Amino acid sequence: MKRFRRLSFLGKTFTGMIAASVIPMLGGYLLLLQVLNLTYRNHLNREAESTLAIAEESMTEAFSDIFRAIGRLSEDEGVVQFLDGDREGVAEDVYRKLYAASGECGSYAGFSIYDSEGLKKMTMTDNKYVSRKLSLNWNILYRAARHPGEYVVCNARLYEGEKRVEYLRVGRTVQGADGGIKGYVIATIVKDNFDNMLKGLGKEKEGVIYVMDDFREIVYLSSESYTEEVVSAGRALFKMEPPCRSMEKDSYYYLDYNEDCSLYIMYRQPTAFLNRMKQYVLGIAVLSGGIGVAACLCLSYYFSRLIYKPIRRMQDAIGEIKRGNYETHIEVGGDDELGQLTESFNVMSKHLIDNTERLIQRERELSDSNIKMMQAQLNPHFLYNTLDTMKWMAKENEMPELVSMSSNLAQILRMSISAKPIIRLSQEVALVEAYAEIQKIRFADKFELIVDIPEELEDCMLPKLTLQPLVENAIIHGLAECEAGTVLVQASAKSGVDGTDAEETDSGSFAAEGGILRIMVQDDGSGMTAEEVKRLNETGQTAEGETPGHESIGYNNVDAIIRLHYGEQYGLYVESEKDVGTRVYLTIPLSRKG
Predict the structure, then answer these.
(1) Sheet of 447-452, strand order
(2) Parallel, antiparallel, or unpaired: how do β-strands 447-452 and 422-424 relate?
(3) What's the confidence (pLDDT) of residue 70?
(4) Taking 50 as the threshold, does the pLDDT of residue 549 lie above it?
(5) Summary mean pLDDT of the chain
(6) SS3 helix, strand, coil % of the chain, rounded to 5?
(7) What Cα–Cα distance (Å) separates residue 476 from each residue in 161, 221, 401, 488, 489?
(8) What is the pLDDT, as a whole number, of residue 270?
(9) Closest CA to 108 of 63, 142, 77, 153
(10) Which of 158, 154, 161, 216 is nearest to 186 (CA)?
């Protein structure tokens, strides 16, 4: 992941595309192989279960016919008489009945009659599987004698040199009227008979059927031979409860028990075809996967380069802007997100040019306003030196009013020629008070100045000479025609930005930076008309085509300086009513840092 993070955008895009295409593709191939494997295994299971069901049904039907034939022969009175030695007149009848049973079940078994000593008395098949004498001490006759009246199924075998041939016998006792055993009816079932029962099931390539007796000895197999692997698989299955199945090497093994025949049926299903199919599909998957990976590499490289091109152009354009070339423009190549981003970049570049021009214009306007303010101050250095001389001459001639005017005017001029453009509110208030003292002498105390500034706001910073022009307008224009009046300077802290809808905060708790400083200059003089108020409030400018009057120069300069310093959302706002008075609100950000 760290190495991926260190890649370039092109490298990340290319790697991401490769991962997003190759990983799902390879995962899909693996999933396909697994699905095919499970599907075919389920198919093999269903096929095996179907084969076992058909085999059991066929064997049950065949053994039912064999049991019925044996039952009729063992319960026939003629057979009893024949075995008792009374053969006159019954031998021919017994032969016909034996022939009828063989005809009925000839394809499934060959029938024979043995006496109580195990000697063969009559048979419908004379082959190597039908012995002339059967032992009474083991195998079929031994088990039948211990279960008289019941059908007994028993394994038999015949050795031909080293080759052992497995087959099956089914028998039942023949009992007399006294219950004694007179003989036995035996049905011999060899491989050909089993083949007839199973009707072609268990072909070598499709699967092999094995039939075993209660002693788990193989009595039939549909192939020519079996290996030790089959015996081992059978032993493993016999440890489980039928029906069951297991997997050994290249084959599936299925085992079930047929209670009607008293035989186990095992089906071996080879998986060679499944393995060949898996190899074939794996080969196709590897080949198609290689082709897919190559295609993914080519397409990922092409599309990553296609995506990277507009980003590269934007990167070059940003480099041009860093070098100061703000005129950079990128051609929009489409309506997608990258096209929208390119268009946004062009808009940003245009806005950057506009903002730069506005910043330059603002600096020019601020300089012009400062020049106008300085010009309006009538060369303060000269006035200050002259007033200082007037003050000492007034003291020598004992003229206190002239001394006060000279001192206050000198204080105003000293402040105006200070190098600092931003001063504390307390300093600006001192300047206003000095100015008011001069005007009181001039107007013979016809007005009163009231200053309401909380102590915690005295160290707030604001541009110098912003309150003096407002107080001057209030005295000269607001109270000019009044016999007496009041000028109120009041400051408060606000929590809102515009100062019009914010609630006043408790000045005692407003100690941190933030919010705005709002200063009101109010007079109870002659006021202004609605048109005059509207004209002043339209961003502090006079109506179009009009020349600003003397009374609005100071107002406009203060408003322009504030807006240039702090932004268009700050400045001056006027409220006035004719013959009632005027309020001028000054709004700036609250700051205690100069």
Answers:
(1) 447-452, 485-494, 516-523, 581-589, 571-577
(2) unpaired
(3) 92
(4) no
(5) 79
(6) 50, 20, 30
(7) 146, 131, 20, 14, 16
(8) 79
(9) 63
(10) 154
Question: Which residues are within 8 A (CB) of 393 and not within 5 positions of it... i.e. 6 or more apart?
Answer: none
Tell me how long the chain is. Answer: 594
d(CA 418, CA 543): 34
The tokens of 557 are what?
A: 């300069």
d(CA 383, CA 415): 13
Q: Which residue has the higher pLDDT, 325 or 116?
A: 116
How far is it, in rounded angstroms, from Cα 121 to Cα 185?
10
The position carrying tokens 């008289």 is 148
**pLDDT over 90 (residue 50):** no
Tell me which amino acid residue 144 is. A
pLDDT higher than 50, residue 161: yes
**Predicted TM-score (pTM) of this structure:** 0.48
371-407, pLDDT tens digit by residue?
Answer: 565 545 444 544 555 566 666 666 666 667 666 666 7
Q: How many helices (H) and strands (E) does the chain have?
A: 15, 17
Residue for token pair 């390539």: 205
Q: Tell me, what DSSP letter sits at residue 474?
A: I
206-237 burial, b for 16+ CB within 10 Å, e for fewer?
Answer: ebbbbbbbeeeebbbbbeeeeeeebeebbeeb
Say which amino acid occupies 43: H
Number of Cβ atoms within 10 Å of the Cβ of 384: 17
The answer to whether 518 and 494 are in contact (CB under 8 A) is yes
Chain position carrying tokens 């307008």: 473
DSSP state for residue 405 in the 8-state scheme: H
